[in-house]
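Key idea: predict the complex, not the pieces.
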Amino acid sequence: MDAGLAIFSQFGFRGSTLDQVAEAAGLSKPNLLYYFRSKEAIYTALLANLLEDWLEPLEALDPDGDPVQEITSYALRKLDMSQNFPRESRLFANEIIQGAPRIHEVLRGELKDLVDKKAKVISAWVGQGRIKPVDPYHLVFTIWSLTQHYADFEVQVTAVLGDIDPFEGARHHLSALLRGLLVP
Amino acid sequence: MDAGLAIFSQFGFRGSTLDQVAEAAGLSKPNLLYYFRSKEAIYTALLANLLEDWLEPLEALDPDGDPVQEITSYALRKLDMSQNFPRESRLFANEIIQGAPRIHEVLRGELKDLVDKKAKVISAWVGQGRIKPVDPYHLVFTIWSLTQHYADFEVQVTAVLGDIDPFEGARHHLSALLRGLLVP
Amino acid sequence: MDAGLAIFSQFGFRGSTLDQVAEAAGLSKPNLLYYFRSKEAIYTALLANLLEDWLEPLEALDPDGDPVQEITSYALRKLDMSQNFPRESRLFANEIIQGAPRIHEVLRGELKDLVDKKAKVISAWVGQGRIKPVDPYHLVFTIWSLTQHYADFEVQVTAVLGDIDPFEGARHHLSALLRGLLVP
Amino acid sequence: MDAGLAIFSQFGFRGSTLDQVAEAAGLSKPNLLYYFRSKEAIYTALLANLLEDWLEPLEALDPDGDPVQEITSYALRKLDMSQNFPRESRLFANEIIQGAPRIHEVLRGELKDLVDKKAKVISAWVGQGRIKPVDPYHLVFTIWSLTQHYADFEVQVTAVLGDIDPFEGARHHLSALLRGLLVP
DNA sequence: TATGAATGAGGATTCATTCAT
DNA sequence: AATGAATGAATCCTCATTCAT
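Result:
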C-alpha cells in the first residue's frame, strides 16, 4: 500500500506501472498481484483506505463548539495533513482532476452528505450571528483548496518560496484569513 | 492544439493517447505527427502556449492602483479564467501535481520572478498601511488555489453543489474573503 | 541517382529512407517519386546502371595480350575503381551479402557467362605454360575480393592503417601477389 | 542469439525485424524483449560475443613458428571459419560496410593493436629473409578479404561456380597464393 | 507465498506511397 | 514539375496480466 501510494500519487494511475510499484514494494510483480488482483485493485484499495481518514477532520467539526475555533481547528488540521500526508493529498487530487472516475459515487454520496450536514451547522452559526455571513459551501472549498494547495502544488510553492518552509507561514495566514472572514 | 488541450487536460500526459488526440482533432495519427514531431511536442507546445496567458493577470496587477481593488480584480480575473478556461487550468494542475517535470525551470525562473516582483508591491501596500498586514506570498497562493479549485476540482465541486452554478457564489465569497483579509 | 547511390551504398536498401534520398537530392519526397515510381525503382535503376560498368574491366581482358600483363592490368583497374567509386562497390556488396535478391538472375546469367568465358582464356594460358597452374575462378575471386576490400571495408582498413593511404601500397602488393602466383 | 545471428547476418540491423528474430527463436516478440532489452541489445550482444572468436586466429600466429607455415595456417583457419561460420562473417561484413557505427572503437583499438603487433612479427621475418619482402598490413588484408569472400559473397561465388564446392579449391588456391607471395 | 517466463493488447513512431492542388 | 498534406502498414517497445512451477 505504501509503495502504491508513493507511485500512484506521483504519476497518477495511468502514469504508474506495476513494475514501479513492485520495485518500491520490494516484491516481484507476480507476487504483488498475488496480494492484489490487479493494478486497479491496488489503486482503488488505496483510495478507499484513505477516504475515511480524509473526511474525518470535517466529521469532527463540533456543532457545539466555538464556531471560529471549530472552523479554524478544522482548517489547521487539514493543513497538518497536507504537511504530513502530501502523497495522500496528491493521490486524491490526481483522481479528481481527471474526473474522479473511480470515486464519483462517493463524492456525490458520502462526501456531499457530510458537507451538507456541516454546511447546516455553519449556516446555523451564521443565523445566530456568531460568525459573519458566509456561504458555508464556499467556505469549505476555501479550506480544502488552500490547505491542499501546499501538498498538491508543492513544486510550485517550493519554486516560488525557495528554501523557506511554507507551512509555518501558511498557518498564520490561514488563521488570519478565517478571522477576517468569520469574526463578526 | 484544441484537441490536445481537451485530451491532455483530462487524462494528463501519460494517460492520454495519440489516438485520442488524433480522433479529437479529426486527423489520422500519422497526420497528427506530421504537424507535431511527437506526443511530447504537442504537450509542450500546449504548455508553452498557455503559460503567458496564465501569468498575464498577475502581471497586470498595478502598483499604482487601489490595493484592495487591484488584488480583488486580479482574483476575480483568475476566477473568470477558471470558469472560461477550465481545461487550461487542469492541464497545468496535472503537470504540477506530477512534479512539473517539463516546466520546472519556468516555475523557478519567470514565475518566481514575477511573484517576487508583485510580492514587493503588496508588501509596500502593507508598509503604507493601505491593507492589513498579510504575507504576500501566501496571499497569492490563496488566490491561485481558491480560483483554480473551481476548475481543477470541478467534479467535486459539482458533486457537492449539485446543479447550482458555483461561480456566482464564488465571486461573492472571494470578494468577501479578500475584504476581510485586506481592508484595514 | 547520385543521391540514391550515396544513401543506399551507406545504409543498404532497408536502412535507407526516401527522406534521406530526397534530402540528398535536394528534392521533395513526392517529387522524387515523380521521377521514380518507388524506392525499389531507384534502387534497381542504380544496380542496373552500375552493373555494366562493373563488369567492363573483366570484359576487357584480352585473350591475345600478355597473360600476366592482362591479369595484372585487370586487377589494377578493379583497384582503381575501388578507389574512385567506393560507393558503387559498397552498393553491390550490400546487395550480395544480403543474398542478392534483386540481381541473383544477373549473377547466374551474365556474370557467370562472362567469368566462364574468361576462365577459359586463363585456362588456355595455363595450358600453354604461359602462367603457372592456377584455378581461374579462384584467381578471379582473389582479384575481386582483394580489390573490393579497400572500398567495402574501408572503415576497417582505415582503422588499422590510420592516415596512411592504402591504395599506393595495395597496388604494389597486388602486383607482387599476382607475379608470385602467375609468373612461371 | 542463434536466431538473431541468422536474421541479422542476412538482413543487417535495419533490415531485420524483431518479428523475424522472435519467429526464428520460437519466442513471442515481448518474450524476446524479456531476455534482451531491445533490438539493439540483441545485435550488440551478438557482435561483442563474436569479436573475440573472430580475432583469436590472428592472435594465435606464433612468432616462434615457421613463417610460411604460420601464415598459411592462419589463412586456412580463417577459411575454415568462413566455411563453418558464414553467418558470423556476414554479420561483421554488414556492420563494417555500413561504417561500423557500433564497433568503430574496437576496430581502432583492439583490432589495430593486434594487427600492429602481428605486423611487427611479419616484418621481422621479412628482415630475417625468411619470407620475401611483403607489406604485412596488405598481407593481412589479403587473407581477410579472400577468406571472407567465400562467406560474405557466397551467393555470387555459388552463382559462378554452380554446384562445385568452393572451399576445396579455395584451400589449394590460397596455399599456392601464399607460397608464391612468401617463399623466398 | 514466491517468481521466472510468457503474452495479448496496446501505443508511439516511422516510412513508402498517394492525394489534391 | 512540384509540394503540402494525408495515411495504411509496419515496427519497436511497454505493460498488465497469466502461466507454470
